[in-house]
Amino acid sequence: MSEDLAGVLDRLLRPRSATGCVLVTGWFSFPDGEVTAGDFLAEQAVTDALGRLGVPYESAWSPHFAPGALTLEEASPERYEQVLFVCGPVHGDQLTRLHARYASCRRTAIGVSVVDADTPAVRGFDRVVPRDRDGEGHLADLALSARPRPDKPVVGVALTHGQGEYGPRRAHDRVAETLYAWLPTKDCARVTAETRLAHDDWQLCRTADQFLSLVGRLDLVVTDRLHGMVLALSMGVPALVVDPVRGGAKVSAQARVVRWPAVIPAEALSARALDDGWTWCLSAAGKAAAERRRALFS
After folding, report:
1. Consecutive H or E run containing 12
2. Are 181 and 173 in contact, with CB atoms under 8 Å apart?
3. What is the C-alpha to C-alpha distance for residues 67 and 50, in angstroms, rounded to an integer?
4. Where would a tag sit more exposed on the chain, N or C end, judged by fewer CB atoms within 10 A?
5. How far apart are CA 4 and CA 45, in angstroms?
6. How far is the C-alpha of 254 from the C-alpha of 249, rounded, in Å?
7. Cα–Cα distance measured from residue 155 to residue 218, given in angstroms and rounded to the nearest whole number
């Protein structure tokens, strides 16, 4: 699949000069667009193929998704010989503005959906290689040509915002704020692991067995809940725990009962403390410690 894509791009970008740079764009480039996993992998597949072809390129990203990366605003048209638009629908004002900005460049779309060929967004391209047009498939989606590394830990997040019974000792809001700012810095797949059950909400588990089935497939649980910790350990899954009550409460008490060390008091919560706990929980020692707790509970 990757070789096929390289061959398609090689033909598509000809004629080209030896030093002419290609600007890779997509919906991931627009500040008012969005970045999906498919978009990301399509960009990865295309830039990998361009690299193997020896074609110089740069990719433009939305500043909201990739702060500090090259943006369309910074990508001056004079620097590029060609503009390559990858993945997503060829439709809308964003594409029309892209054509106007890069009118001096040869513009090509590949792996896109063409809903209506008779629009300025489509007609503005010099060449279009669709993945589908009018409901008919023409090209395998570009994401299939990517070379991903899906080896990242899957981390469940179980937080509570209640527990008003602790009154002025509550640090729940600060704990949540700190965790929400820290979690995006970790290279992992994050999922909600809400311990609350419901019969009529598809986003929540209906039974405890369903919840345990979810937890058992995780590599780590990050939580400030007692049962977030206990149920993770019952499945042999390490838990990175924050006690959200100043002075400690039931979370710390149960951690002492089961002798689980990865507990951070609210007063000591920091990104560094979380990083240290993260590293230990995902280490061989942390995983073995969780498995030992599972054996004790079974």
Report:
1. helix 2-12
2. no
3. 24
4. C
5. 11
6. 9
7. 6
Q: Which residue has the tokens 């979370």?
A: 251
The letter for the amino acid at 281 is C
d(CA 15, CA 3): 20
Are 293 and 233 in contact by the 8 Å Cβ rule? The answer is yes
Tell me the Ramachandran region of residue 12: left when phi exceeds 0, alpha when psi lies from -120 to 50, beta otherwise: alpha
H or E, element range at 108: strand 106-114
Whole-number Å distance between alpha carbons of 166 and 1: 58
Q: How many residues does the chain have?
A: 298
DSSP bridge partners of 154: 189
Q: How many CB atoms lie within 10 A of CB 292?
A: 14
State the pLDDT at residue 148. Answer: 81
- Which H or E run includes 137? strand 136-137
In this structure, what token pair is assigned to residue 287? 């995983």
- C-alpha torsion sign, points 286, 288, 289, 291: positive
Structure token digits, residue 230: 């206990």
Q: Are 212 and 200 in contact (CB under 8 A)?
A: no
- In tens, the pLDDT along 84-94 reads 999 999 999 99
Specify the pTM: 0.85
Ranges of residues in the chain with a pLDDT under 50 are 1-2
Q: In whole angstroms, give the CA distance from residue 223 to residue 193.
A: 9
Sign of the Cα pseudo-torsion (269, 271, 274, 280, in order)? negative
Q: Which of 56, 70, 107 is nearest to 86 (CA)?
A: 107
**Amino acid letter, 72:** L
Which tokens is 168 given? 């002025």
